[in-house]
Every structure is written in C-alpha cells, then in structure tokens.
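Quick one: structure tokens for this chain, please?
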Amino acid sequence: MENRKALTAAQIRYLLTMKQLDGDGNGVRGAKVAAVLGFTSPSVHTMLNTFREMNLIRKDAYGVAYFTENGRDVVARYSRYYQAAFGLLSAHFPPDEHLRTAVYALLAELPEASLAQFCPGSPRPAGLHSPPQSPGGDPSHRPPNDEQKGNGL
C-alpha cells in the first residue's frame, strides 16, 4: 500500500483555492493566492514549497506554480469531496465561511478511503481499496431474519 501523507485543512483550502485560480491551466502566482486567502506572501511561499515537496506542484523560473499530474489527481478528488460535503451540509447550515471552514476540517480528519466511499463515482486513489464485502453484502444493511425479529422461528 502506498504511504500517503494526510492533508491538513489548511492545505486542502490552499489547493482548492489554487485550483479555482488556475482554471485555464496557466499556473498561479503565490501573490495571487495570498491576496485571495488574505495571507502573507511568505506564508504562501512556505505552503507552496511544502506542496512541491509533496509532488503536488512544480514552479517555473518565474515562480508560477503548476499542478503536477499527482497534484491534479489529488485536487480533483478533494474538490469532489468538498462539493459533496458542502452540498450536504449547506442544506442544514448557512452556506457561509463557517461552514466552508468546517468542511475543510472534516475532509482533513476523515481517512481518504471514507471520503471516497462518501462520494461514489469518484475514482479511488491508488492504494485505497473498498472493504471486502460478504457474498450477501454488508450484514448491517440486510433485513433482519425471523430470529432477529424476535419470532424465534
């Protein structure tokens, strides 16, 4: 199994913001990320270096950050997870900055295998597998038999 480092809530927020800013695939400058998130340029520079070490981005000679293939895969998955969780929770809570922050925290806390199960149809990242199912499916989702109903038959 692949040794995958979990993303923090802050890293997820940065990555999804970078994806939004890089809509055309021409890369994104750290100063733009800083302006949108309201962070300092040195803070963004540090995070971009972390992403480079994680093989999520590469930077050109001008400091423009581009997603690597791995980075595009990760950000696409987390974008789907975010949309699914935000969509579900915004039906019950005001869709404001508090909810966005809570969704980033939720995504950071749950194992990615659980997030992938929450978003059926999302491709599973390499190394993540569904739990084995018994031939009859998950026993917790089967209707009770007569003995379990208390009929004693």
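The helical segments are 9-21, 30-37, 41-53, 69-89, 97-109, 112-118, 146-149.
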